[in-house]
Amino acid sequence: RPAVLIPVAIAMFFAIGTSVSMIDGYIPTYDRTIQPAVLYPYTQPFASYADVPKVETKGPASFLRNFPRRQLNDVMANHSRTHPPGPVLFLWVVSRLFGPGLVPAWLATVFFASLATIPVFFLARDLYGEGAARRALALFLLVPSVILFTTTSMDGPMMVFLVAAIWAFLRATREGARWWTGAIVSGLALALASFMTYTASYLLLFFGVIAVLAFFTDRPRFWRIARIVPVAALTCLAFYGTLYLPAGYDPVAALRRAVWANNELVGTGHA
Predict the structure, then answer these.
(1) pLDDT the model gives residue 250
(2) Residue 34 φ/ψ, nearest 5 degrees
(3) Inter-residue contact 153 to 49 (CB < 8 Å)
(4) What are phi and psi of 174, to 5 degrees?
(5) In 141-180, which positions are buried (b, 16+ CB within 10 angstroms) versus exposed (e)?
(6) For residue 174, what is the DSSP state?
(7) Cβ atoms of residues 133 and 9 within 8 Å
(8) 10-residue averages of pLDDT along the chain (271 residues)
(9) From CA 167, how far away is CA 73, in angstroms rounded?
(10) What is the pTM assigned to this prediction?
(11) Could you give the CA distance from residue 33 to residue 40 in angstroms, rounded to a whole number?
């Protein structure tokens, strides 16, 4: 039953991801100190974790307001400069809830990434049935790209919102679905995903392809898509409006700064 299967899958994702990240034992970091391999992604000077103290010092509102500005942006880690502020704020919230340090950041990142098993299961079940969903979940736990590169990096938390946005969007377009709820959840998940990574923009292309295919092969689904898009878009705007009004966060300026920072990195070996 899903009530048993999903908690087991979350625990197995956490166990497998943690075990694989510990294979290398202890490794030298950039400052030539020896650290457990599982903590290595957080000790790199270009990782988002390096900027958590800046949020603690300035406060989250000031950090968001100054995020695109050169005075702050130029002294941040490469990952922070080329991504939205979500990853840094995620790690800062973890430090406030569970204490500062590498171990709480590592545990919280892996556990939150494991929550992606929930939308993965329900997405597969909605599309192909429960038997396929169980198989999809088993495969998801063993996919090398997820286990090797996601469980101890901010790609894990990003993944949760990306998959949730796809699931909510497709669920909202089903016949007889509560499309209002699905549209709001999809818009909120997409907003959170875009607050974590700019690759969320590819979901718009993905949804656009689905809409075009539906126009030619399933006209009722196309009209259902047409009615949820404005609701999802308004939800995204409301999310960023709540960040702009009290904190002054400008997502357009942040995007432009990230494009500039990415261009600066071309040819430096970080491509």
Answers:
(1) 94
(2) -95, 125
(3) no
(4) -75, 155
(5) beeeebbeebbbbbbbbbbbbbbbbbbbbbbbbeeebebe
(6) S
(7) no
(8) 93 90 83 82 84 93 93 90 94 93 90 95 94 94 82 87 94 85 93 95 93 94 93 95 91 94 80 56
(9) 34
(10) 0.90
(11) 11
Tell me what pLDDT residue 141 has: 92
Q: Which of 38, 50, 112, 37 is nearest to 79 (CA)?
A: 50
Q: Is residue 221 a contact partner of residue 214, using CB atoms and an 8 Å limit?
A: yes
Give the end-to-end CA distance of the chain in Å, rounded to a whole number. 45
pLDDT at 93: 96
Give the integer Cα–Cα distance in Å for 5 and 143: 18
Q: What is the DSSP string of 217-264?
A: H-HHHHHHHHHHHHHHHHHHHHHHHHHHHHH---HHHHHHHHHHHHHH
Residue type at 30 in one-letter notation: Y
